[in-house]
Amino acid sequence: MATSELITLGKAYLQIRNYDKAMEYLSQAVMQGKNGAAQGLYQVGKYFLKEKEYKKAEKAFQILADRGHSESCLALGQMCQKGLGRKKDMEAAFGYFGEAFRNGSAMGAYQAGLLMMSDALQYEEVRDIALTWFQEAIHGGIYQAYMQIGYLYSEHTTFQYNGTTRNDAIALSWFLRGALHGDGSCMEQAALYFLQGYGTQRDVKRAVTLFEQAAAKGEPFSCMQLAKMYEKGNGVHIHKEKAIQWYLKAQECGAANGRYEAGRLTCDLAQQRLLMDDKKEEAISLFQKAAEYGYFIAYLELADMAMREGNIPTYKEYLKKGAQAGDSSCRSALIDWHKGKIKPLMDELQPLAEKVDKDPSHRNKKLWKQYVTLLQQMEMTLLDGVADTDDENMWRLLTIWYLQHGADFGKKGKDFLQAADHLMQINESEELLVLLWFYYSGNSANWAGALHGENPRKAAYYARKLAKRGAHGFCHILAAYYREGYGVKQNLKKADQLERKEKL
User: Fold this and answer.
1) What is the pLDDT of residues 364-380, one digit of tens each?
2) What is the C-alpha to C-alpha distance for residues 183 and 134, in angstroms, rounded to an integer?
3) By the 8 A CB rule, do 498 and 467 touch?
4) Contact 357/448 with Cβ under 8 angstroms?
5) Residue 73 φ/ψ, nearest 5 degrees
6) What is the pTM (predicted TM-score) of this model?
7) What does residue 219 show for φ and ψ, rounded to 5 degrees?
8) Cα angle value 173/182/167 (rounded, 5°)
């Protein structure tokens, strides 16, 4: 097949993402000496590398590397260095990086220098060789190599080894050269040196300038450093508004906690405004901004302000927002508030329930009405609590409430089972299993006002689960079920085994 046809077919298969066929035809075209196929085959190699089909990727890159394709040499070097599809082989990686450099890639020289860094920090003779590689990289426009040379001389930014002499003044000179060539990392390191006085007199003004230049290059650390300087007054006047803006800039540049730090500081400003008589509205606005930035405890501050004003709906709304955003303090405060609403109802109900128990025929209509009204109030309070918090204890109380009192105020078995099912999704506790066993076994029928739905098969199911968990008394209960054939097939041998297990 003619070479031009091989290229045409290869590119066509590449376009429809049939990478195996594309590799077949493009490889043949490259081996026949057609440069027009090289870039397509390189794309195929990158695809296989991304998909972790390392053998195919290596084959594509090797065909190209054998013909002087520098990017493929770099790719093979990185595969050897990282151990992709083979054992890690630093010697082979170095060879590929050197070949990439000889084929015109300055990045090959940079990568070769990086491979030598560990030894170069310990041995003078290795450092001299690494310097040569980095200088070749610089000549090819790889200006981050200035940073690595600076590290080789640094007394502070690399580990201390006894093997090589260090000099921060020399390190700073290399960082400054990289900064002059526009490398953001070099700007950042030079700024740190001026800020700390490494290898030079401390010069905060120059440090700030270099940090700002590095930040403009998208360096998140520089943004964070500027934010901390303005927040704490480290060599500059305290300016918290500027600090907030730098924290936000840090987030834009990739710092994961930039917005959170901006929120934390915004919350501090809001608290300061609260101490001023005429700054309440500004404080509220700042707390809201802090929450927007991800500092969700600000919702608790807003809730407390609403509570002090007696605005309960707003208080709850802020706590709910904080809880939904994931703030544990807001969630705890919301749960505590609901518990506070439940307790007085519980205290009121207990003596009332005792009076109702002494009047089983409900002759005292006023007493019964008062009792049912209180049960309904408790249900609404519990429903409000579970809706706001989805808290396990709230669901537990509601589930118990329906089981013990549901029949007295018109609830059905489905109400209890729905609450129990939701609680089950949160935590299949032993207590919940006991409640379900009570409901299905019919035992709850003996409780005044309790719901029950006797189902021997399900009662045996929950008794079995409880027995397996070692719940006290349930081996004995399950034994009785097997002896009587209640919800299970009668099995006297199994019953005796369970009785012996209960005694143990």
Assistant:
1) 899 999 999 999 999 99
2) 15
3) yes
4) yes
5) -60, -45
6) 0.79
7) -85, 110
8) 15
